[in-house]
Amino acid sequence: MYGKAFAPEYQGSLTTTLSVNSSLVDVLAAGTEQLRAAERSGCPRETARVGLAVAEAHRRLGHVADADREWKASYRAARTAGDAGAMAWALWSGGTLARQRGALTLAWRLLGFAAELGEHGGDILARGYSLAGLAETGRIQGDYEAVSALHEQLLAEARERGEARHTVWALEGIAQMHRNTGSYDTAYAMFEESAAIAAQADDRRGHAWALRGLADIVSVRDGDADRALELLAEAEVTCRTMNLMSALAYNHKMRGNVLYRAGRYAEARDIYQEALTEFRTMSEPRGEALARLGLVKSLARLGRDRDGTAADLAELACVLDRIGLRHARRMVDRARVELGITEDAEGATASPERLREAATA
């Protein structure tokens, strides 16, 4: 049995005034007010704790520079107070921001320090969330072998504590790996379980992400575009209500995927362009690259010239190699095969072996 979901990143005086479902605009307003009060009172511990919520609200709203400033200020205040747990949470926020910005090496470093500080400071949740951040960083890089066991470990720990929000996160992460390796039935079952737990625990953010995962499976496995779009529309209501800008952009990117698979290329083009604009506004390079890939494929299906498509795919391959997103990089190779683009990023004809590898990746 799982209890009601809660948001451990809303700390100090915000613990009782904000919930996991609070609008990010409300979080930012309340957090900023309490942060100023803590600064005036000269209490570094409270400054660090409420500053974390401000940093996270800025990050999730796509205010990258503000988020970067606030997590660092939270860390400095926590260090002044000698509060190892608060230091761990600030580093977790910084590491999560680094991953969002595509700085994966920095994300690994900050999240690793956060996990160590959480353990030494006796903050089980800070340790767990930081390890989850490391697992998620490896997952989005496509290094499933390295992080699958950590995902499973964190899922078991969350289930044992009855912590709904973290259970939902772990289930969705594992489900995504199964989906990306072709185990659609297993992925669907896990997304379905995460949606049920999130609904039971009133975790609307987790529920919206689970619906997105279900929509993906319904589209790719069942070919049911209408049902997939219904699920995404339901999730979008939550994203807009809570001002979940990143989740909304990924929702739109998935809507593009569904439309593309259904052969509705003009509609897919338009929604990919919308998602691309949203990701660029948030300075989120991973989402931007994925939306660009969908846009390039849609334009190719609508008659764009082969040379322009090849050039864009080559550029995307370089971007994804630079960020270190191996799974997404393989998606570019599959797109080349799908669209009949037989030249690699350097303009040389790709070998038959490479094309066969791309087609089966």
TrEMBL record:
InterPro entries: TPR-like_helical_dom_sf, TPR_rpt
Organism of origin: Streptomyces himastatinicus ATCC 53653
Gene3D superfamilies: Tetratricopeptide repeat domain
Full protein name: Putative tetratricopeptide repeat protein
Alphabetical list of SMART domains matching this protein: TPR
PANTHER family assigned to the protein according to its UniProt record, in alphabetical order: HTH-TYPE TRANSCRIPTIONAL REGULATOR RV0890C-RELATED (PTHR47691:SF3), REGULATOR-RELATED (PTHR47691)
